[in-house]
Amino acid sequence: xxxxxxxxxxxxxxxxxxxxxxxxxxxxxxxxxxxxxxxxxxxxxxxxxxxxxxxxxxxxxxxxxxxxxxxxxxxxxxxxxxxxxxxxxxxxxxxxxxxxxxxxxxxxxxxxxxxxxxxxxxxxxxxxxxxxxxxxxxxxxxxxxxxxxxxxxxxxxxxxxxxxxxxxxxxxxxxxxxxxxxxxxxxxxxxxxxxxxxxxxxxxxxxxxxxxxxxx
Length: 216
Known about the structure:
This protein has helices at residues 16-29, 54-71, 77-82, 94-106, 111-123, 132-141, 145-152, 156-176, 204-212, and strands at residues 5-11, 34-40, 50-51, 90-91, 183-186, 193-195. It is of the alpha+beta class. The chain has a single domain (5-212), classed as Glutaredoxin. The chain has a 4-stranded mixed sheet. Strands 3-4 form a two-stranded antiparallel ribbon. The two termini are 25 Å apart. The relative contact order is 0.18.
């Protein structure tokens, strides 16, 4: 039996398109012929964070409706009201990326599961995933107590791992010419190549064919 094909998944936990892509990613993660490594890019963290104003809120909601039509993923009215309507917090993926990094350090096999849970908390339940207390609740509900404790009081190792993951993912984006997320880098050594976001919004069969065929 051949070894699984490695895939790097470039994403941001505040990216609506990444939430849409999770439908196919979830099916891909369950396969034995691929091995997926999560690579958070920090696209909306640090300098990428911004205020949520009326213009950005309207732009995000219009995109969300398009994503929903393409993927079938729900974006609730409570999300629209409580998250997109909140003018008191930054649109900042730093806390959620830190939470995922805490999971990567303590229970790495569960990171994608937690990413999905965080996305549901935001887009369906309408809760604020820029809040450490909300993220800590998500981790505790998943019985990831150690990750929750590290998130609420980040140690030097967690902060260093967060920075290394984001810097590594951004370096991959530059190397492979990825203009945004989500995106996949498939292969190993000198045979790695970029598979763009469009492949994540079709059928699983089409995605698998794209991953296996360099010509596509």
